[in-house]
UniProtKB/TrEMBL annotation:
Matches recorded under Pfam families: PG_binding_1, SLT_2
Alphabetical keyword list: Signal
UniProt xrefs under Gene3D superfamilies: 1.10.530.10, Bacterial muramidase, PGBD-like superfamily/PGBD
All residue ranges annotated as the Transglycosylase SLT domain in the record: 44-334
Signal is among the record's keywords: yes
TM ranges: none
Protein's UniProt name: Lytic murein transglycosylase
Domain of life: Bacteria
GO molecular function: peptidoglycan lytic transglycosylase activity
Signal peptide feature range: 1-18
Length: 411
């Protein structure tokens, strides 16, 4: 069943981070507007046919009648779907968001607050508190951004729209099965524009496959304010995907001079000892620990940070099949435990600017009166708009693009 989640993220081309955390580049659309359906005769006609297909798959007409009260064509969901596909970020930008000061601080507070239940979850599913908390942090900012769009509406809109119609019709059928079981009402069954639900953003098929009732009230409730069932469900997902208890996801490493990066990549696994024999070391200069078959990743190319990844890295990818996401979860989980930031230096970006340069550019734009929405070093829509305003004011060609010359001019 995990294939459905993989399909979703492969289709998104990014992690759920961009899909649900907002503020990562494009201005977030007003969710209230998104949730307001508009009349669409073609959608209504599609629903007639869908009702027959749902009935053939065992969905009772009473279930359909109740659920479809929350349905409706959502043009903004289609808009999000179209704009999402080309959206990618470098690992450096991704980590600046995924392991931001805010996400680390909030995660540490949640980890401390929920230590007891997270330990109980670990005892049952083998996944440690910091990893479950990191997934929670990336998926919904610890429950702050669970999504308020009725899932029957979002999945039916995307099933009707048809670009990924078969996939979303499968999600819609799964959502109806959840409703038919009585786990939640259609009104409470809300999620992101793409139908990812609750604290840990399960799509409906993932819910059917992995959601657990951990607090024992008889329902796997991933929608409630209390995250217990959602956190246990994420742990169950990883546990059943092969998580190895007591093992790390991976670690930052140092490569020897002249390391052939053709040897990097998940397809090239070796024993830790073989990498150590080539001169790969941990960040303290020691040989690599043995956690089974190990791959070396060099996501920013030669000269950038390098990582050794173990079996549990692949398990995180089963949750969300994007390399940046898996490194983000692993690194955030390390930071939640108080471990250090990534020490390797990312090379300058395509504009010739380092992260420090980009932060300085944002600080100087802010000081000059152009709001960038926080100097996190990530050049998003607000920073680009600020650059355009600045360029217009000082009489430069209006490109919205950061550059070394622009930074120099601001100094
Ligand atoms: Ca429960």
């Amino acid at each position: 069943m995990r294939i459905t989640r993989r399909s979703l993220t492969a289709w998104l081309g990014i992690s759920a981070l961009a899909a649900c955390s907002g503020g990562v580049g494009s201005p977030p659309p007003a969710s209230r507007a998104t949730a307001r359906p508009v009349a669409n005769p073609a959608y209504d006609a599609w629903l007639v046919g869908f009702r027959q297909r749902a009935a053939a798959q065992g969905i009772a007409s009473a279930t359909l009648d109740r659920a479809l009260r929350t349905a409706g064509f959502l043009p903004d969901v289609v808009e999000r779907d179209r704009s999402q596909t080309e959206f990618t970020r470098t690992l450096e930008d991704y980590l600046a968001i995924a392991a931001s000061d805010e996400r680390i601080a909030k995660g540490r507070a949640q980890l401390a607050r929920r230590q007891a239940v997270l330990r109980t979850i670990e005892a049952r599913h083998g996944v440690p508190p910091e990893v479950v908390t990191a997934i929670w942090g990336l998926e919904s900012m610890y429950g702050e951004r669970r999504g308020d769009i009725p899932v029957v509406a979002s999945t039916s809109t995307l099933a009707f729209d048809g670009r990924r119609g078969a996939f979303f019709e499968q999600q819609l059928i799964a959502a109806l099965r959840i409703l038919q079981r009585g786990d939640v009402t259609a009104e409470r069954m809300t999620g992101s524009w793409a139908g990812a639900m609750g604290h840990t953003q399960f799509i409906p098929t993932s819910y059917l496959a992995y959601a657990v009732d951990f607090d024992g009230d008889g329902r796997a409730d991933i929608w409630s304010d209390d995250p217990t069932d959602a956190l246990a469900s994420a742990a169950a997902y990883l546990g059943r995907s092969g998580w190895q208890a007591g093992r790390p996801w991976g670690m930052e490493v140092q490569l020897p001079p002249g390391f052939d990066t053709a040897r990097a990549g998940r397809g090239n696994r070796r024993e830790a000892g073989a990498w150590s024999a080539m001169g790969v070391r941990d960040m303290n200069g020691r040989p690599l620990p043995d956690h089974g078959p190990t791959a070396i990743l060099v996501p920013a190319g030669p000269g950038g940070p390098a990582f050794a990844v173990f079996r549990n890295f692949d398990v995180i990818l089963r949750y969300n099949n994007a390399q940046n996401y898996a490194i983000g979860v692993g690194h955030l989980s390390d930071r939640l435990l108080g471990r250090p930031p990534i020490r390797g230096r990312f090379p300058p970006d395509a504009n010739g600017l380092t992260l420090d340069d980009r932060k300085e550019l944002q600080r100087r734009l802010t000081a000059a009166g152009f709001d960038v929405g926080g100097a996190d070093g990530v050049i998003g829509a607000r920073t680009e708009a600020a650059i355009r305003s600045y360029q217009k004011r000082v009489g430069l060609p209006v490109t919205g693009q950061p550059s070394a010359e622009l930074l120099q001019r601001l100094r």
